Amino acid sequence: MYSGVRVLAVNTGSSSVKLRVLDGDDRLAWSADLGPLDEAELAGALTSAGAVDVVGHRVVHGGERFRAGVVVDDAVEAELDALAPLAPLHNPPAVAAVRAARRALAVPHVACFDTAFHATLPDEAAVYAVPAEWRERWGVHRYGFHGLSHAYAARRAAALLGRPVEDLRLVTCHLGAGASLCAVAGGRSVDTTMGFTPLDGLVMATRSGSVDPGALLWVQRRAGLRPDELEDALEHHSGLLGLSGLSADPRELFAAADAGHAGAALALGAYLHRLCGQVAAMATAAGGLDAVVFTGGVGEHDARMRAEAVARLAWLGPAVDPERNGAAPGDAVVSPEGHRPAVCVVAAREDLEIAAECRRALG
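Structure (tokenized):
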């Protein structure tokens, strides 16, 4: 019944909604990009998408309960509502989009979770060394995010390399406004840089990444910050923007650093230092390295960032061919012919992973 289905993928972020219709052969049939979620605008756009068989929704956080895509009914929708505190910037608009779309389109709806790909993390990678009550009562552990992107990037890189993903040890690098790495071994996530929330891990555009919790406690006490003020500082005024005092855009920072701007140079240095150190950590978790895979807005489009990162990782073996790297047309191997570990660029296609999740959920 569901082979060859026409899927509408709804990718709701904190500041935009991307709509993609994929036909039965996963070809893009229709698309629309909206601004911040407006339910009336979304409902109108959905009616322009044409007939579809199923709607798949990206939901950032699935909590303890959801470890794979799930068909949404009223009970599941209520459970999704209850997860809002785990990802307050991302889950509420996603659930609002689910609600609006269910009213607008009388077809099955499937929630697809960014945390689901990381459900395979071994305990040693997922656990935090915190009191047992925190872990057992409140579920404090590493969930990981960007799972839809990491899963697709791993499969697509394997195809580019002409090898089964199950035979490869990959480090997938989703670099955008938010950024995370994933160690993929045997086609499964075995480690990742984001943790209980999407704040953890790498330096990002405006997010801090990992910070000593003792430093946060010290600043909170010293400045008398409320939790919401601390959250705002870490989410919106940190990262590349906070370090440079100039911009969150790496392209602007490279230009400024070349012109002698010290803050821009510091921001890029810290970004690359954390990124490359964590690539090495992910390679350790994967048990080796067959390829580094770049995806996401920065990973796909910033050839200089890729070249700078790979240069710092030369001791691990990866290399880029300058001509290939500079001309990467989307999905490409940008390392020299036959070089291992390889370096790949993959255009982020969360819509394709959402479509695959929908078909799995529908059996």
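The mean pLDDT is 95. The two ends are 9 Å apart (CA to CA).
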